[in-house]
Every structure is written in structure tokens, then in C-alpha cells.
Write a structure and sequence with these properties.
This protein is α+β, with helices and mostly antiparallel strands. The longest helix is centred in the N-terminal third of the chain and has 16 residues, at 11-26. The protein has helices at residues 3-8, 11-26, 35-42, 46-56, and strands at residues 30-34, 63-67, 75-80.
Length: 81
């Protein structure tokens, strides 16, 4: 297994993590996203984005991905660690 699949499970997951890291950096370290908005940006179905966010939660070095219960049931908090 190569580093990409061991850290991110797939190239798609790695691409999502890179996108989220860049967006969090641009936002000053923390942002809130919804799957359908991210899906539009990286051309994946919203359901796939939600699945990937769940998989990446707690497993991406330098990036915290948590399901945000304070804003919306479909919102995710992304922050650089």
C-alpha cells in the first residue's frame, strides 16, 4: 500500500483533504462547510463528500475535521491544527 492510500484511503480523499486544508488556511484557520458546497467545488456528489468527511475526521495530520452540531446537521468544522 502506498502512502496516499494509507493516510487517506484514496486519491479522492487526499484531494478533498488538500482542498479543505487550502480553504481553511485562506479562512484564517477555521471554516464551516456543507457537503453540497464542497461537492460543487471539487466535482463529486454531495453524499460522497459527506462519506469522505466522516472517514477523514480525526485522521488527517494537521487538519481537524469535526461534525458541527451548533450550526446545521450537515455542517462540518474544518480547522488547521
Amino acid at each position: 500500500m502506498n502512502n496516499c492510500t494509507s493516510a487517506y484511503h484514496s486519491r479522492t480523499a487526499e484531494r478533498l483533504a488538500q482542498y479543505l486544508r487550502a480553504e481553511a488556511h485562506r479562512a484564517g484557520g477555521t471554516l464551516y462547510v456543507r457537503g453540497e458546497h464542497v461537492a460543487d467545488e471539487i466535482d463529486l456528489p454531495p453524499k460522497r463528500i459527506t462519506t469522505l468527511l466522516s472517514q477523514l475526521s480525526g485522521s488527517v495530520p494537521g487538519l481537524e475535521i469535526t461534525h458541527s452540531t451548533s450550526d446545521s446537521p450537515t455542517a462540518w468544522r474544518i480547522s488547521t491544527a
